[in-house]
Design a protein that fits this description.
Beta-lactamase, 40% helix, eight-stranded antiparallel β-sheet, alpha+beta, 12 strands, 334 residues
């Protein structure tokens, strides 16, 4: 089936472009509250599921054994901007486990936010693995391997024992299989698994409520969500959409971006999970869509609803600072 347009881009009062996609909101039982498009299509969630992947970090006892608090827990779920505080955190977490930056197997790239990359380049320095936007997640992986006595060499490979532990957690939380038949390789070299949007939404509802999870896992999920909502900068960075959404939510909303136009979110007080995918992989469309979708789940008189609705529409300006159009929700999201 063809997915509908979720977000449109205007210029001069006319629609210039459209972004098609699908979304679904479910409760922890997987009952669909609302949906649009093909929610059964296998979708790689990419970084959107980092909070689920971080569950063994807490469940193993590694996070507590190393004395990590909310900042470190949030960072273990991060797709960060590579700002100095992020890089420092990436290195310090490994140091607690007796490791250094050479243990990372996530690869190296320049910070994805242009101002951050330019600032680093201006110093004459080059990025290292700690600048990788996934280094926080990998720090959690490495610390847990050390705590569990696992050989951390090759920890990114699907056949590594720790990746099997993560895949099992993903299967339990989402209810969807995570095996060789639906596996790919993510940008940071760990496995990523294509599952239906409906399963992802239900998984985030379970993470938000603990419903359907074993008590230990429910407690770990709550700690991770609470940490991310309390310390969103460590999960994203300055001005990033995840940061702005969770700062606006003040502990009421969890949101996590994934590559290629994916977003997953949850509203714990309502027991709802959200998953969406923009077909063309556009981040600008996914950001607009998740803000609009979150807003629509809240009561009309809830101030947060208006705040999120306002965030869903972005004014575009040209290089002279002249307003030329908007990125705005369309169709069922408008």
């Amino acid at each position: 089936m063809d997915n509908p347009v979720l977000v449109e881009v205007t210029r001069g009062g006319l629609v210039e472009s459209g972004h098609r996609g699908a979304y679904v909101v479910t409760d922890a039982d997987g009952a669909v509250v609302t949906s649009v498009g093909d929610i059964e299509r296998a979708t790689f969630p990419r970084s959107a599921v980092k909070a689920i992947q971080a569950l063994p970090f807490i469940e193993s006892g590694a996070a507590d054994a190393l004395g990590f608090g909310r900042k470190e827990l949030s960072f273990a779920c991060a797709s960060h901007s590579g700002e100095p505080g992020h890089v420092e955190m990436a290195k310090s977490m490994l140091a607690r486990a007796g490791l250094d930056e050479t243990a990372y197997e996530c690869g190296t790239h320049w910070p994805m936010e242009q101002p951050v990359a330019l600032e680093l380049a201006a110093t004459g320095a080059k990025p290292g693995p700690a600048h990788n936007n996934c280094s926080g997640k990998h720090a959690g992986f490495l610390c847990t391997c050390r705590h569990m006595g696992l050989d951390f060499k090759g920890y990114v490979k699907r056949e590594h024992e720790y990746q099997r532990i993560i895949a099992d957690a993903m299967t339990t939380v989402t209810g969807a299989p995570h095996g060789a038949e639906n596996a790919g390789i993510d940008g940071c070299s760990i496995p990523t698994y294509a599952v239906p949007l409906k399963s992802l939404a239900a998984g985030f509802a379970r993470m938000a409520t603990g419903q359907g999870l074993e008590p230990q896992r429910a407690r770990a999920a709550k700690r991770l969500f609470d940490a991310c909502m309390a310390e969103p900068w460590y999960m994203a960075g300055t001005g990033r959409a995840c940061t702005r959404i969770m700062e606006a939510g003040k502990g009421r909303v969890f949101a996590k971006v994934g590559a290629e136009g994916v977003y997953c979110a949850a509203i714990p007080e309502l027991g709802l999970g959200i998953a969406l995918k923009c077909d063309d992989g556009a981040a600008r469309a996914a950001e607009a869509a998740v803000c609009a979708l979150l807003a629509k789940q809240l009561k009309a008189d809830d101030p947060l609803r208006q705040t999120l609705s306002d965030m869903a529409t972005v004014t575009m300006k040209n290089w002279n600072g002249i307003e030329v159009g908007t990125v705005r929700p369309a169709g069922a999201l408008s």
